[in-house]
Automatic annotation (TrEMBL):
Domain of life: Eukaryota
Gene name of this polypeptide: Ano9
GO cellular component terms, A-Z: plasma membrane
Family per record: Belongs to the anoctamin family.
Entry-linked PANTHER family: ANOCTAMIN, ANOCTAMIN-9
Gene source species: Poecile atricapillus (Black-capped chickadee)
Domain Anoctamin dimerisation: 83-146
Name of the protein described by the UniProt record: Anoctamin
Taxonomic placement: Eukaryota, Metazoa, Chordata, Craniata, Vertebrata
Regions that span the bilayer: 157-186, 236-255, 301-327, 347-364, 398-421, 531-557, 581-605, 685-710
UniProt keyword list: Cell membrane, Glycoprotein, Membrane, Transmembrane, Transmembrane helix
């Protein structure tokens, strides 16, 4: 049966004899034959070539990358390399074999000489274990078989699922804290003085929210929204934001400990990725010269300029969403449909959030569709921009660029809503307008944090429903279509064809070919999806405390959905070795710092927490009278609303006649005569700034203390490494003494 074990399968169209493609294919296969590869051909609707590497290649691999001591002791005994290592070595040689025309497999696939190259899903015990214990919905809440995943898909994939499982486990605590925050707000909102004042403000006339078809309205109309807002905008939110900053740090520090344990158990501490790549290059070509480190300031400048242009484009998209919301607000208020005109502000916010989600989906497709990015995604770096020395460098550069792209795509609109909405729109009588016509929208009457809450809720719910459904449905439908399209052709029995038709490899190769294609960066997309989710879960979590709960539910499903895709719907990934999650760890640490800054800004600027506190301690009745039974926030709502004289409205925005003697109220701190900022505005501004500095310094100090308090590497692992080093040195000393005693 050993003769039927194949490392890789190459697939090609049936080309005419003597054609250019047929000649190129033959040249490549001849190069493999010169290296000792065994090649088996099976013909169906396509040509299938099974490839098996000679044993001496793996002996070289073992000799080059084995510890020198063990090499001396086992010089005559070569152990079988794991299947994952075989596939990795063969894949490297296939990708780096050069024909006489100086073409590699990648070039031949671009020219359609070969259509596909993939390792096989084989009928082996470990695959059946993974199908039973991992790639099925019945085991949704059971522990992942990480060791089996490693033995089948390699260390890199196993580390991804170990990290995702660890992240999901710790999300339980964040989700409970978020629920507790919302519950605290829900239980106290009925007794909240601020909410009570809004609900009782039946005589407080507010200024119109738009120019046409918008009448004056009563503040008590927003009673329900005020109660909902208080569920997320209260004192508990500040505690929760600090908790999430600590949680993010503890999560990363505990993961570092978990990774250290995994690395020592998998014997990865002495492994070096660059050394392995050099060894594989020498195995493939003994005359290979290493590529030296280089740096080009011109190339770095080009990358920087393109990155800035990319960010400018994404900011432009955010501005387009702002314009949409301003125009939509104006159109909805003029609608004859009562539902649209009555709830124009809420509908504009929700449709804006949906449109933001659509732009996220579109930009995600754009970044991997054409040009250098598409080539880079498939392992073909754009020579104009970057010439990575190793695959690891290529992957790291790609990760940083695409993460920045996706981060701005996802968060540009949220940043506007959190920090600019309602603060740059002017005031009654002097509104800021788009093209001199449409007013910039204001915050929701119940507070700016409500808009951010709605935006995050809509985006996270859509991303975790529609996106996940499509992520699973598209590969499933594609697989079903490929099965129908690529079914083996019915062939007439001709001389010499009966044996081929009955070849046991044929059905296995066809079944693998019918699966969906994977590429060397397939795992990158999974990492990116979860890291963006982690950003949503931490950066603006003060505005949406339920984000960790949604992330937890998503991840429980995501783990097994990915497992089913990888085991049943996609071709086998080329196993890669790794001893950590790579540059993603630095990305997560950067997100942790952004989370502290983002949540500090949300509490200081977006929420009403600071204005309420300033009022309590500087302007409330409690500062003038000693009323122990009085709530110090009594009168806050009236204090936070400025007065505007209706006769001062712009001439072209006066649909109301005969009301020139009346006044209306609006959210701001301005004088009633000249509409300049009051002294209270500057007190609040100073308090916001002081709180932001204090919050961020306290949170960052707590993060640093937590990082120091929790060692990255457990003592058990340190001691095990110490004992191994000591044992290796004693063995080395013993060999030296034996050599000296032999008189050599």
């Amino acid at each position: 049966q050993n003769e039927e074990k194949w490392d890789f399968v190459l697939v090609s169209d049936i080309h005419e004899m003597g054609s250019e493609k047929e000649i190129k294919r033959k040249k490549f296969l001849d190069e493999l034959s010169k290296k000792g590869f065994t090649i088996k051909k099976i013909e169906d609707t396509k040509l299938f070539y099974g490839v098996r590497a000679p044993q001496h290649i793996f002996w070289k691999y073992q000799c080059l990358l084995t510890n020198p001591n063990s090499r001396q002791q086992n010089s005559s005994a070569h152990q079988d390399v794991p299947v994952t290592t075989r596939i990795r070595v063969v894949h490297f040689i296939l990708q780096n074999t050069v024909t006489s025309d100086l073409e590699k497999l990648r070039d031949l696939m671009k020219k359609k000489v070969f259509e596909a190259a993939f390792p096989l899903h084989k009928k082996e015990d470990i695959r059946e274990i993974l199908k039973k214990k991992w790639a099925r919905w019945r085991v949704l809440f059971k522990e992942q078989p990480i060791e089996e995943i490693r033995c089948y898909f390699g260390e890199k994939v196993a580390l991804y699922f170990a990290w995702l499982g660890w992240y999901t486990y710790l999300l339980v605590f964040a989700a409970l804290a978020g629920l507790a925050t919302v519950a605290a707000g829900a239980t106290v909102f009925s007794s909240s003085q601020v909410s009570k004042e809004i609900c009782d403000a039946n005589n407080t006339i507010m200024c119109p929210l738009c120019d046409q078809n918008c009448s004056f309205w009563v503040l008590s109309d927003t009673c329900t929204y005020a109660k909902v807002t208080h569920m997320i905008d209260n004192e508990a939110t500040v505690v929760f934001a600090i908790f999430m900053a600590i949680w993010a740090t503890v999560f990363l520090e505990l993961w570092k400990r978990e990774r250290a344990t995994v690395a020592i158990n998998w014997d990865l501490y002495g492994w070096d990725e660059e050394e392995e790549e050099l060894a594989l290059q020498l195995i493939n070509n003994s005359q290979h010269e290493p590529r030296l480190y280089q740096h080009s300031y011109l190339r770095s400048t080009i990358v920087l300029v393109l990155a800035v242009l990319m960010i400018v484009v994404l900011i432009g998209i955010a501005h387009a969403l702002v314009i949409y919301r301003a125009v939509a607000m104006a159109l909805f208020t003029q609608s004859e449909v009562n539902l649209l005109s009555k709830h124009a502000d809420t509908i504009a916010v929700m449709t804006g959030a949906v449109l933001h989600y659509v732009t996220i989906v579109i930009m995600t497709k754009v970044r991997s569709h054409r040009g250098c990015l598409a080539g880079f995604l498939h392992g073909q770096p754009c020579p104009l921009l970057i010439k990575p020395r190793t695959f690891s460098e290529q992957e790291n550069n790609f990760t940083v660029k695409i993460f920045i792209f996706q981060f701005f795509t996802n968060f540009s609109s949220l940043i506007y809503i959190a920090f600019f909405l309602g603060r740059i729109n002017g005031h009654p009588g002097h509104y800021v307008r788009i093209a001199g016509h449409w007013r910039l929208e204001e915050c929701h009457p119940s507070g700016c944090i409500t808009d951010l809450f709605i935006q995050m809720a809509v985006i996270m719910l859509l991303k975790q429903t529609i996106s996940n459904i499509m992520e699973y449905l598209i590969p499933w439908v594609s697989h079903q279509l490929r099965k129908k399209k690529k079914s083996p052709r019915k062939r007439s029995v001709m001389l010499g064809e009966e044996e081929e038709a009955e070849d046991p490899c044929k059905r296995q190769w066809l079944n693998n070919y019918e699966l969906n294609e994977v590429n060397v960066f397939s795992l990158f997309n999974e990492y990116l999806e979860i890291v963006i989710q982690y950003s949503f879960t931490t950066i603006f979590v003060a505005a949406f405390p339920l984000a960790p709960l949604l992330a937890l539910i998503n991840n429980i499903i995501e783990i097994h959905m990915d497992a089913i895709k990888m085991m049943r719907l996609c071709r086998r990934m080329v196993p890669r070795k790794a001893k950590d999650i790579g540059i993603w760890l630095q990305v997560l640490e950067a997100i942790g710092i952004l989370a502290v800054i983002g949540n500090g800004l949300v509490i200081a600027i977006t929420s009403d927490f600071i204005p309420v506190q300033v009022y309590k301690y500087m302007y409330s009745p409690c500062t003038r009278e000693n009323h122990t039974s009085m709530d110090c926030s009594t009168g806050y709502i009236n204090n936070s609303l400025s007065i505007f004289h209706i006769q001062d409205f712009e001439p072209h925005t006066k649909p109301w006649l005969g009301l020139t003697e009346l006044c209306c109220r609006y959210r701001d701190y301005r004088n009633a005569d000249d509409y300049t900022y009051t002294i209270q505005f500057w007190h609040i501004f100073a308090a916001r700034l002081a709180f932001l500095i204090l919050f961020e310094h306290v949170a960052l100090c707590v993060k640093l203390i937590a990082a120091w308090y929790i060692p990255d590497v457990p003592q058990k692992v340190k001691n095990q490494i110490l004992r191994e080093k000591h044992s290796n040195l004693r063995d080395e000393l013993r060999w030296v003494m034996l050599w000296k005693g032999s008189g050599v």
